[in-house]
Design brief:
Bound molecules: FE2/S2 (inorganic) cluster, fe (ii) ion
Number of strands: 18
Strand order of the largest sheet: 12-18-17-16-15-14-13
Order of helices and strands: EEEEEEEEEEEEHHEEHEEEEHH
Distance between the termini: 25 Å
Radius of gyration: 22 Å
Number of helices: 5
Structural class: alpha+beta
Mean pLDDT: 95
Shape: globular
Largest sheet: 7 strands, antiparallel
Length: 350
């Protein structure tokens, strides 16, 4: 089975997906049950009754507790069994379920799948564009992709694919000729492109009616530890500054579901025409169409060709465009190796 970075915050759900019903989602090969307590706090426990391994999500939510459908064991949100309605009602010591630290920020419920002792809320990656409605208007959605999360991450960290895959929707083909730089800033990998006087990207023709040529920026900021990225792109009149232009801020947050499937939480925020709901709809349709009908099919087809192995072991040909993806993959490899080393040391000491 594939190793994942475990001591980090992953997006588990959008805030509105977690409510007073039992919501189950697989994350890093573990089925996780989420719900909100009566006071509104979200909580997460393993969706697996320790008695006969029935999914708790088909049971009942009673107050802040979950009752298993099969024989009525009841668990609180710390995963502790608090009631056994059978016979004398004694509760076996082992009758508990794993619970996971959560942190709800920026309209996202983040989950810590690793050592709960290490869950530090200050490590939740910042996505102010999703929650600062004074300065931005955002739309968002979720997509499941039948491919390993690293293939999804490769796709997002590589700006060059847009000139081909998204030529009808997001970027003109001439983008492929533009130079870009890749820089590592602390734990982040940035890929940056500034295209002077380029054909207006199709999305800006759809949402603003712009045509002809404009200056265009396109940047991808990748935070490997959080398997998340933010794409910044926008246009401004030729020769004008970025501040005078139209900017979009697009969080791409991915969470491994299994070794070969991935949850993709996408957002699209803008800093102009904040009250224009029709425009929001155009952004929603545009992003959702591009991800579902352009990115998803090619990434899934790649996965089918690559099979069960790590793509890098197949010695892929590398292009200059791959610089960002290669660095993000290396950072993830390092983090996984660090965690495995720590685990090995613990065993040696113990
Ligand atoms: S399987 Fe849950 S109580 Fe028996
Ligand atoms: Fe794409």
């Amino acid at each position: 089975m594939m190793a994942f970075v475990r001591n980090t915050w992953y997006a588990a759900a959008w805030s509105e997906e977690v409510n007073r019903s039992l919501f189950s989602r697989k994350l890093l090969n573990e089925q996780v049950l989420m719900y909100r307590k009566e006071d509104g706090t979200p909580c997460a426990i393993r969706d697996l009754c320790p008695h006969r391994f029935a999914p708790l999500s088909i049971g009942k939510l009673i107050g802040d507790e979950v009752e298993c459908l099969y024989h009525g064991l009841r668990f609180d949100c710390s995963g502790k069994c608090v009631d056994n309605p059978n016979g004398a009602g004694s509760i076996p010591k082992a009758a508990s379920v794993k619970s996971y630290p959560l942190s709800e920020q920026y309209g996202v419920v983040w989950i810590w799948m690793g050592d709960p002792e290490k869950a530090d809320e200050s490590l939740v990656p910042a996505f102010p564009w999703l929650s600062d409605s004074e300065n931005y208007t955002q739309v968002h959605g979720t997509l499941n992709i039948e491919a390993n999360y690293l293939l999804v991450m490769d796709n997002l960290t590589d700006l060059s694919h847009a000139a081909f895959i998204h030529v009808e929707t997001l970027e003109p083909r001439e983008l492929a000729k533009a130079t870009f730089e890749v820089v590592e800033e602390g734990p982040e990998v940035w890929t940056k492109q500034w295209c002077a006087a380029m054909t207006v990207p199709p999305l800006f023709t759809v949402v603003k009616g712009f045509t002809g040529q404009m200056d265009h920026w396109l940047e991808m900021r990748c935070i490997p530890r959080s398997t998340s990225m933010i794409t910044f792109y926008g246009v401004t009149e030729v020769g004008k500054s970025r501040a005078e232009g139209y900017g979009t801020y697009n969080p791409n947050i991915i969470t491994p579901e299994t070794d070969t499937t991935t949850h993709y939480f996408w957002g699209s925020a803008r800093d102009f025409d904040l009250k224009d709901e029709e425009m929001s709809e155009k952004f929603r349709m545009g992003a959702s169409f591009a991800f579902t009908h352009e990115d998803k099919p090619i990434i899934e087809a790649q996965q089918r060709n690559v099979g069960d192995v790590d793509m890098m072991s197949l010695k892929p040909v590398l292009l200059t465009n791959d610089a960002g993806s290669v660095r993000a993959r290396r950072a993830i490899d390092r983090l996984i190796a660090e965690e495995q080393e720590q685990a090995a040391n613990l065993i040696a000491v113990g």
